[in-house]
Structure formats: C-alpha cells, structure tokens
Write a structure and sequence with these properties.
The structure is a homotetramer. Chain A is mostly helical. In chain A, 75% of the residues lie in helices and 0% in strands.
C-alpha cells in the first residue's frame, strides 16, 4: 500500500512539473502588427517546452517501469525517490533559462547537468532497490538488471556528450539531447511491462 | 494495472492544464474608479477561460470514454498518449494569446490548429488501439468503432471550418467553435459507458 | 468505475485550485527597511487566501459527501459536474481581485456571485441526481434529501445576504461570509459518512 | 473509503505545493554577459527551493506514516486536516520571501513560524486521532504514541530554536533548520510502516 501512495505522489509531481512547463512560454507585450515576428522569435521557448515535456515523460515512463519491478519501499528508498522528485520539479527552471537564452552554452550546461543529476539519482535509487533484490521482485533476472543498468549508463553518456559538445556548439547539444530522447522512445524498452 | 497508472497520470495533466487556465485572466493594474471598465474590457479573457475549460473537458470526457474500451496499453500507445498530453498541456498558451488579441485572425488560427492537432493525435491513438482490436475489448462492435471514427471526423471538420471562416471573420470562428462544443455535449455520445 | 474517475478528476481540480490561491499573495518589490509595513499592508490578500481556501474546502467536503450517496453517473451529470469545476477553477480570480481592492463593493459582489453560482450549480447537480433517486442510493431517505436541500438553501441565503449588505458596508459582507463558513464547519453535517 | 479520498486530496495539495516552489526561482531580466553573476546571486532562492522541498517532503512522509495508523476519519478530523493543508499550501509564500531577502531576520521568523504552526496543527490532528484510540488502530501501543508525541515535540523545539537564534544571526537559523531536517531524514522513524 505504501508503494502505491509513493507512486501516486510521484505521479502528481511528474504531472504538475510537466504541465507547469507551458507557463515558461511567454511572449513580450506587443501590438497585433508585430505579433507574427514576436511569435516566430519565441520558437526556442516552444522547442524547450517540447523537449522538456518529452524528457520528463521519459523519466515518468522509466519511473513507472521500474516501480513495476518493485515489491516494497523502505525509509531510504522513499527519501531517494523524493530527492529524484526534487530534481524533476526543478526542470522547469533550466527549461525557462534555455528558452530565454537559446543556443547559449551556460543554459545548455545547466539543463544537461540537471538531467544528468536526475538520472544519476534515478540510478542510485535503482541500484539500492536491485542490490541483492532488496526491494524488487525476486524473479527479476540478472540479465534484466544488467539491461536496466546499461540503459542508465547510455543515457548518462549522452548527457555528458551533450555537455561536451556545448563547448564547440551549444546547438549541437540540442541535437544530442533530441537524438537521445528519440532513441529512448524508439528502442525496445529494457523491461516490457 | 499499467493502464490505470497511465489513466491517472493523464487525468492529472488534464486537471492541471484546465485549472491553470484561470492564471490567464489578468487585468491590468488600475485604481478602483476604473475597475469596472477594466473588468468589462477583460471579457474576451473570460470567454477564453470558459471556452478552453469546456474544450479540455470535452477531450477529458472523450479520453475517459475511449479508455473504457481499452483493455491494455503497450509501449507505442503510451507514447502516443503522452504526445496527446503534450498538446493538452499546451492549450493554455493559445488561450492566453486569444485573450490578449481578441477576435484577431492569427490567434484564432493558432488556437484552432492546436485543437485540430490534439484531435488528430487522439484519432491516431484511437486507430492504433482499435485496429484489429489491438488494445480494445474484443467485444467492441464494428458499428461502435465506425461511430467513434465519425465523431473524430466531424470534430476535425468543425476545426477546419473554424480556421476557414477566420479568413472572413475571426468572430465567426468563435461561433463555430462554440457550436461544435455544444453539439459534442448535447448529442448522444458515440459510446455510452 | 466511471464514478471513481470523475471523483478523482474533481479532486484534482479542487486540489489545484486551492493550492494556486497562494500565488495571489504577492507583495510589491520593496527594500528590507520597508518590508514590515509592506507585509502588514498585504493582510487583505492573506485574508483572501484563508477565506477562499476554507470555502473551496467546504465545496470539496460537500462534493465528497454527496458523491458518497451517488451510485452511478450519466452523461448529463458528468457535464454538470464539469460546469461546477469550471466555477471552482475560477475562484482564484475573484479572490485575487478582492485582495487587490480590499473592502470595496465590486470585488465583493463578484466574489459572492461566483460562490452563489457555484452553489447553485451544485444544487442543480444534486437535484438531478436525487430526483426519483435517479443516481443516488435507493436507501437515501426523503428526510436526508430534504436536509441536503435545506443546506444548499441556507448557504445561498447567506451569499445573497453578503451581496445585500455590501451596498451598506463591504466589510460586513466579509463577516457574513466568515459566519456562513464557520456555521458550515461547526454544524452537524446533513449527511454523516 | 472516505479515509482514502482525504489521503488522495492531501497528496494532491502536497504534490502541487511542492512543485509550485520552482516558480519562486526567478532571475531578473539580464543579458547573456551578466547571466553567470545573476545566477550565482540567485543561490538563496535555490537554497530556499531545496529547503522547502525537503521540509514539505518531511511533512508528507509524516502525514503518510500517521495515516497508516488511522482506521477512520470523522468530521472534526477532516477539518483539522484541511487546516493543515492550508498551512502546507501557504509554504511557497514565506519561501519566496526568504529567497527575496536572504539571511534577513523577518523572513526567517515568518518562515519558521509557518513551519511551527504547520507542525502544531499536525500535532493537534494527531492527538485528536490518538486520544483514547479515537481514530487510530486499537493495536497501536502506548509506546508508539509516546514516540510520535516526542517527535513532534523535538521538531517544534528546533523551530523555536531557529526563531531564537535569528535574533543573533539569521544565517544560524538556516543551519538549525537544515540540521533538524537532516535529523528527521536520518533517524530511525518513530513508526516503521
């Protein structure tokens, strides 16, 4: 039962964080004659909305899939999960920053670092739960565990790569992030539930 | 079980998007003497609140009814559903735009296009689920499926019509949208659950 | 099942509307020396937060209690419920108005009219459900139905009274509203669940 | 059943209040050259986000754990719970204040007083439920009740201490608050569920 309440609370935070993203799309005060160029100039904010919406969705789906394997929760895992939510709830801020300063290096690094930290905490949660099958279903095979470990690893590599290429071209970081997300959505999921 | 968590998450996004709409009603700073005219001048924002609240409600009811027919969800359907939510979560933005520039063509077109895209994605989700009864209850009859197809078709026609008439009178587009919504609410639903 | 999803969605809108109220408490930019008087001057916004929080809570508790009697929902009752939520979701706006123009008549009338309309729609929902025991438990006695009718009636009287006294003293309307809320919380509820 | 709906509603308010905190992190309009110093200057807002996120999490976990012991709810306990939520929903405001005036005494006192009041109301809820095992499981031992009482007592002491030291150094209050939170997270919970 406790597991389900933690799940519901997490879903709430995911759903709110994802829906608050739209508040970041703000166009400056303008008259109707200049509305079209103003709107066109706001496309990086639109891109940020789409990107963060999809990335938070990815985290939600992955949270969902991992919780499917989990049988119980304990005190430390609750707090790790809340730490994960702290980072999920933070994502609207770097998204806003990136929309305000499109294709600049600093916001890209802050954005990717937030995603990297979120993913690392997710990984720590997962290892804590999976270690010796502490919280997960005893039937989860070693092969499944390794496949999930590998998923976290690949995603982190992409985030590090996105940070790396930002030193040459912040726009290229966007491409790396987009590619990463596309791969996550299209590949065969590590766990099929 | 997975179906229910996707449903809960979707409900969360619908509920938040619908409740955020009120933040769009903003009256400019004024003193009490000029409050009445300021409030009266804000009626397009009020209209926008009501219209978008009802339209998001329509999507929610229809989402709800279709999910009633669905027996399971799979990886592609989760992502189509999340894409649908991306558009639902976006609706507050064109609503704000239309409140800021009432009865102007460009915001009307952006608003109707958002609704059209939302509906098209809903239709794709539905066809994916219904095709060969992939995800829906095997007992759903061909007649029911055709009735639902037809519903999507009619609603899209209305959105296209609203975009079309905006070239002559954006105010007429409001009427088309209102009529469409009224018809959806008053007609016998395609599926009775 | 459909009943429970309508309940969950309504709970979501109630919870979000109630939590958005805090965004209405905004103090003007100031330096630390003038923070105390600025904060003290913001007390009407604080009062508005408390009042609306309690009133939305009252609606939620009453929604909750009435749904306890309901056995099923149908197409019209879903749309009446959504109309109710449209008014619940609107409450943050007149609350903000009343905080901005404390103890002025016009915001008080708009605020009370919103509450009155919300309550009237709640009453229509209730009569629709209770008429001939259309949607409610067949075991609900006539006496219970009359007690609930009477509750709606009394609350509406209070709102009308609050509007009435605003013509003499808007501050007195606050007292009427506060008294009404206090009575609702303290009296023996019409239905004990 | 009623217990579960109160729990869900409370979870909703907790989840929304915690996710709204991110809206408090606002950096002033700036050009890219001055972005780094502007961001660095915003660190008290970041600290406020983390602190309030963790503290609301603490309240949520404790709410969750206490509800685990509760078997039923009644009219007074519903309203005490809603009063608790009123204070939870208020937390974003003093958090914003503290972020705007970092390390100043007045915001610290307002912040700590809010937390103290929240905790006191939580304590009253708990005593009401536990007294003569009014609402809690009859199997809850006196020792468990005393341990929970003691937890509330200690946390309140810390909040009073934080208010006290603010007269000498508001920064020290932050340390006291942080220490308190760390202790709550790390110690063996009063109830293990």
């Amino acid at each position: 039962m406790q597991k389900s309440r933690l799940e519901t609370f997490s879903d709430g935070v995911f759903a709110i964080a994802i829906t608050l993203l739209v508040l970041n799309i703000r166009i400056p005060q303008t008259d109707y004659e200049h509305l079209l160029p103003t709107l066109l100039a706001a496309w990086p904010q639109l891109l940020g909305y789409v990107m963060s919406f999809v990335i938070v969705s990815v985290y939600w789906v992955s949270h969902h899939n991992l919780f499917h394997l989990i049988r119980k929760v304990d005190h430390p895992s609750i707090w790790m999960n809340l730490l994960l939510l702290l980072f999920i709830g933070f994502i609207p801020f770097p998204t806003a920053l990136m929309g305000q300063f499109p294709f600049k290096q600093m916001p890209v690094i802050i954005y990717c670092s937030t995603l990297l930290a979120t993913n690392l905490i997710g990984f720590i949660c997962w290892k804590y739960a999976a270690n010796g099958h502490r919280l997960i279903d005893p039937n989860v095979s070693r092969a499944t565990i390794r496949r999930i470990d590998f998923s976290f690893f690949i995603v982190n590599l992409f985030y590090l790569l996105a940070i790396g290429v930002s030193f040459f071209s912040p726009a290229a970081s966007y491409v790396v992030l987009g590619l990463n997300t596309l791969l996550i959505i299209l590949r065969k999921p590590a766990i099929e539930v």
